[in-house]
């Protein structure tokens, strides 16, 4: 059984989508080489809504508050020790609002992925929807990528894209992109646990997948 550990900071809607996919698609009952389960959810914020979602699904939860550590490196080392207790095949950043040290990223190379609410490499960082609107882009979306040392810059696994409505608000756009994230993220996780997607020499290998698989649209 491959263990998935999810790191969150907030409401956890992507976590919910993942847990629903796990149940609907019976990841636990797959052949041994591809069987997987969300083994634990770890939050750096005790009030993160996603913790309730995890508990309701019977998934172990842990809270590790970054404020209790003197340095970023100390927090990341403690976080890694906690993650490793769950023997993860995959570590998923699902709305985890922390910049990670290069040491942390290196430790999980090839098994650490992130979902980011823009079409990378455009709009790294925060406030992506408002910035996309301010820039006047006509196409916007979300990206799932392997995490590298540079923020929101790792090798792209798949993306979701939609057309921006002329008078769309940032809130409306965010909601539409989020709905696509909920399709995109479980899909990418499933490919990884099945071994169809992997990182090799800094590039994504996607065996047997085609453009239509790797782009989610409304
Ligand atoms: C999502 O928009 C994700 O792309 C970003 O953080 C947000 C998390 O939302 N990294 P949720 O906690 O999964 O609802």
Describe this structure in words.
Helix 1 (13-24) packs across helix 6 (170-194). Strands 3-2-1-4-5-6-7-10 form an eight-stranded mixed β-sheet, with helices on both faces. A two-stranded antiparallel sheet has the order 8-9. It has one domain (2-216): Rossmann fold. It has seven helices and ten strands. The chain is of the alpha/beta class. The structure holds 5-O-phosphono-beta-D-ribofuranosylamine (GRF). The site of 5-O-phosphono-beta-D-ribofuranosylamine has 16 residues, from helix 1, strand 5 and helix 6.
Radius of gyration: 17 Å
Strand content: 25-35%
**Lateral arrangement of strands in the main beta sheet:** 3-2-1-4-5-6-7-10
The CATH architecture designation is 3-Layer(aba) Sandwich
The total strand number stands at: 10
Poorly predicted runs of 5 or more residues = none
CATH secondary-structure class: Alpha Beta
Q: Sketch the major β-sheet.
A: 8 strands, mixed
Whole-number tally of structural domains: 1
Shape descriptor reads globular
Distance between the termini: 33 Å
Number of helices: 7
List cofactors, ions and other ligands. 5-O-phosphono-beta-D-ribofuranosylamine
The ordered string of helix (H) and strand (E) elements is EHEHEHEHEHEEHEEHE
Give me the secondary-structure category: alpha/beta
Helical residues, percent: 25-40%
Per CATH, what is the topology?
Rossmann fold
CATH homologous superfamily classification: Formyl transferase, N-terminal domain
């Amino acid at each position: 059984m491959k263990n998935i550990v999810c790191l969150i900071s907030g409401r956890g809607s992507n976590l919910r989508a993942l847990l629903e996919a796990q149940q609907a698609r019976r990841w636990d009952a797959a052949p041994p080489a591809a069987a997987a389960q969300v083994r634990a959810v770890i939050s750096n914020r005790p009030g993160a809504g996603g913790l309730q979602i995890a508990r309701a699904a019977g998934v172990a939860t842990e809270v590790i508050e970054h404020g209790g550590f003197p340095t970023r490196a100390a927090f990341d080392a403690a976080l890694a020790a906690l993650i490793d207790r769950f023997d993860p095949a995959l570590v998923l950043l699902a709305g985890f609002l922390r910049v990670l040290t290069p040491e942390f990223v290196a430790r999980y190379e090839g098994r650490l992925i992130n979902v980011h609410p823009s079409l990378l490499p455009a709009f790294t960082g925060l406030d992506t929807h408002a910035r996309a609107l301010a820039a006047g882009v006509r196409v916007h979306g979300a990206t799932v990528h392997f995490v590298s040392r540079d923020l929101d810059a790792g090798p792209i696994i798949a993306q979701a894209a939609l057309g921006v409505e002329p008078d769309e608000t940032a809130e409306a756009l965010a909601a539409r992109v989020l709905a696509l994230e909920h399709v995109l993220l479980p899909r990418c996780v499933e490919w990884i646990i099945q071994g169809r997607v992997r990182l090799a020499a800094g590039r994504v290998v996607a065996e047997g997948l085609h453009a239509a698989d790797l782009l989610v649209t409304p």
